[in-house]
Design brief:
181 residues, alpha+beta, 3-stranded antiparallel sheet, two-stranded antiparallel ribbon, DUF2058 domain-containing protein
Length: 181
């Protein structure tokens, strides 16, 4: 005895007619086609997933680079604020003087009128000249060293301290008092 399919059994029992059988066949055929498309789209989906993952990775890398740049800018601003604060807190009030002290700023020779004692301190390296915005300030040499460690562009003049050297070959020669450079 041959085994009849469920469809044939339902048709033989009179529970369904031929129109319903054709409709069910069409629905099952459509379902099979959708399943095939789903599998095919799953392959396309894997390519799409790979593309989306690559785009996400690129965006993450781009964001990381932008964050590093922002962090560097924030650090530079913090250093500039520290330098400005150190200059403002340690600046020495300029005494009006009649001695012109010449120095260079951005390949230009500038002149600052100071007193004789400040001139001596600048020459000996106890004072330094720094630039704050568009003005020039005098600060102690240790502060100038700290500033130059952070950013050398602020310090314009910082002579090395001249300490007495025991074996100085020119110690016997006097420097004239009226010698100005």
């Amino acid at each position: 005895m041959a085994v009849k399919s469920l469809q044939e059994q339902l048709l033989g029992a009179g529970l369904v007619d031929k129109k319903k059988v054709k409709k069910l066949k069409a629905e099952t055929l459509q379902h099979k086609q959708k399943v095939k498309k789903g599998k095919a789209s799953a392959d396309d989906g894997s390519e799409r997933q790979a593309e989306l993952k690559r785009q996400r990775d690129e965006k993450i890398e781009k964001d990381r680079i932008l964050n590093l740049e922002r962090q560097k800018l924030a650090e530079q601003k913090a250093v500039q604020a520290q330098i400005r604060q150190m200059i403002e807190q340690n600046r020495i009030r300029k005494e009006d003087g009649d001695i012109a002290y010449h120095f260079t700023d951005d390949k230009k020779v500038k002149k600052l009128y100071i007193s004789q004692s400040m001139h001596n301190d600048l020459s000996a390296g106890r004072l330094a000249i720094v630039k704050l915005f568009d003005s020039y300030e005098l600060i102690p040499e240790p502060v100038a060293v700290k500033i130059s460690e952070r950013d050398e562009s602020y310090v314009l003049v910082c002579n090395n301290r001249v300490e007495s050297v025991e074996d100085d070959p020119y110690a016997d020669f006097q420097i004239p008092d009226d010698l100005m450079w």
